[in-house]
């Protein structure tokens, strides 16, 4: 067992996801018969076009026996019939990493492709209560600055406001098929996705909101999904317009029948900062990675990423490169755990003319999220607890800090 804390604990947890998993199976004939009856009842309810009723039954079965592939297949089908696309896709992807007959595996791949190419309207919501502001503990507030040819000590005055608040992430999706670009082996849809995410608390200095929209083409084949989007975002900080970005984004995913997924994304954006003209410029982001499932209950993956931001002021121009590992595991009692950890290096183009030391940084951190998948609140949401930790080591001690945060939230399940 890992007896570490923070970042080290998350890395250790990710390592344990490679370990073989085992859970209790029905111990005697009566228990097996009762389990089979519950399963057959759920299947019959799905076939009777009541997937919303079958979902809690299947969730309760998997809460006891997470390795039962048949139950996970039917849960994916129930989510699909109930138009819970994100949940259905997640479970279908998990099923791919189990031992399936070739015809069933092919049907699962087709179902994932259908979800990616779907038409119509749906929406997503994630709300969490958390402590906003003052989460960073800086190594020091003292800094040495140049004043002409002299070096003078100074103190940085930081915002000290703290309050309980809400983090939110909401989006909607509207899609229609483009017949001229579709055929027997490919489906192209035109997708429009408005979204908003951020933090809210009183006072307004703790409010940070980003509004945006994506619009573009989704080109889907049986094992691949390609997305070509125009993306526009506007960020407001403390109720003042802070930054606007407009750009292009390309995303790609390839799904192997074994459950291995290869993915990538590239984004280029022009940035207009409304508070400081020197921060105007452009930004490029790239991410490449893979994710492999194991036995329908676990997954583990990794990615490399880069960010290049160029501004009118050269000492705010930087390159950032990093790598990450991530995974999830489904335990009994309906517990789902997901975790990620990363390390990144930020290299500034030139040192700031005011500061004595080198501003280059090494940043590492992680996220741990625990969900109760079989507990449905208000007929629609599942609860979770999430902890985020981050350490930033800068060549300037006043910009080095450790940050941690707890969140208690609800995620839309129906």
Quick synopsis:
The chain has 2 domains: 28-116, Tetratricopeptide repeat domain (Serine Threonine Protein Phosphatase 5, Tetratricopeptide repeat), CATH 1.25.40.10; 121-412, monomeric porin ompg (Porin, Beta Barrel). It is 20% helix and 50% strand. The protein contains 6 helices and 17 strands.
The number of helices is: 6
Number of domains in the coordinates?
A: 2
- The gross shape turns out to be globular
| Fraction of residues in β-strands | over 45%
Order of helices and strands: HHHHHHEEEEEEEEEEEEEEEEE
Low-confidence stretches: 19-24
- The fourth-level CATH homologous superfamily of the largest domain is monomeric porin ompg
CATH topology of the largest domain: Porin
- Work out the number of β strands: 17
CATH class of the largest domain: Mainly Beta
- Proportion of helical residues: 10-25%
- Rg over alpha carbons: 24 Å
Could you give a short account of the major beta sheet?
Answer: 14 strands, antiparallel, barrel
Mean pLDDT: 89
Q: In the CATH hierarchy, what is the architecture of the largest domain at level 2?
A: Beta Barrel
Structural class: alpha+beta
Structure characterization notes:
By secondary structure, the chain is α+β, with helices and mostly antiparallel strands. The protein has two domains: 28-116, Alpha Horseshoe (Serine Threonine Protein Phosphatase 5, Tetratricopeptide repeat); 121-412, monomeric porin ompg (Porin). 20% of the residues lie in helices and 50% in strands. The strands form two sheets. A 14-stranded antiparallel barrel has the order 1-5-6-7-8-9-10-11-12-13-14-15-16-17. The chain has a two-stranded antiparallel ribbon with strand order 3-4. It is globular and about 85 Å long.
């Amino acid at each position: 067992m890992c007896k570490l804390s923070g970042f080290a604990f998350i890395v250790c947890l990710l390592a344990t996801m490679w370990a073989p998993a085992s859970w209790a199976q029905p111990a005697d004939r009566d228990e097996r018969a009762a389990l089979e009856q519950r399963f057959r009842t759920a299947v019959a309810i799905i076939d009777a076009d009541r997937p919303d009723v079958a979902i809690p039954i299947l969730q309760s079965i998997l809460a006891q026996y997470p390795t039962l592939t048949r139950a996970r297949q039917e849960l994916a089908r129930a989510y699909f019939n109930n138009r819970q696309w994100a949940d259905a896709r997640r479970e279908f992807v998990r099923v791919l990493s189990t031992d399936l007959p070739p015809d069933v595996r092919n049907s699962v791949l087709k179902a994932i492709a259908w979800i990616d190419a779907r038409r119509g309207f749906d929406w997503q919501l994630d709300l969490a209560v958390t402590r906003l502001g003052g989460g960073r503990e800086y190594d020091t507030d003292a800094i040495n600055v140049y004043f002409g040819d002299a070096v003078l000590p100074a103190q940085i005055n930081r915002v000290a406001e703290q309050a309980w608040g809400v983090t939110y992430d909401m989006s909607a999706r509207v899609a229609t098929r483009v017949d001229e670009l579709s055929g027997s082996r490919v489906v192209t849809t035109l997708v429009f996705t408005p979204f908003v995410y951020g933090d809210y608390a009183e006072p307004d200095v703790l409010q940070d909101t980003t509004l945006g929209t994506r619009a573009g083409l989704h080109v889907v084949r049986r094992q691949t999904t390609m997305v070509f989007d125009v993306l526009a975002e506007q960020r407001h900080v403390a109720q003042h317009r802070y930054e606007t970005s407009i750009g292009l984004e390309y995303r790609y995913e390839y799904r192997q029948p074994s459950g291995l997924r290869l993915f990538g994304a590239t984004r280029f954006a022009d940035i207009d900062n409304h508070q400081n003209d020197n921060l105007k410029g452009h930004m490029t982001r790239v991410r490449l990675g893979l994710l492999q499932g194991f036995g329908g209950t676990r997954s583990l993956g990794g990615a490399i990423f880069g960010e290049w931001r160029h501004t009118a002021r050269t000492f705010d121009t930087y390159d950032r490169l990093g790598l990450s590992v991530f995974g999830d595991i489904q335990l009994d009692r309906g517990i789902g755990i997901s975790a990620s950890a990363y390390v990144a290096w930020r290299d500034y183009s030139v040192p700031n003319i005011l500061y004595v030391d080198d501003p280059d940084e090494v940043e590492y951190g992680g996220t741990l999220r625990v969900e109760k998948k079989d507990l449905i609140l208000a007929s629609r949401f599942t609860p979770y607890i999430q902890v985020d930790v981050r350490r930033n080591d800068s060549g300037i001690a006043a910009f080095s800090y450790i940050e941690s945060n707890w969140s208690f939230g609800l995620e839309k399940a129906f």
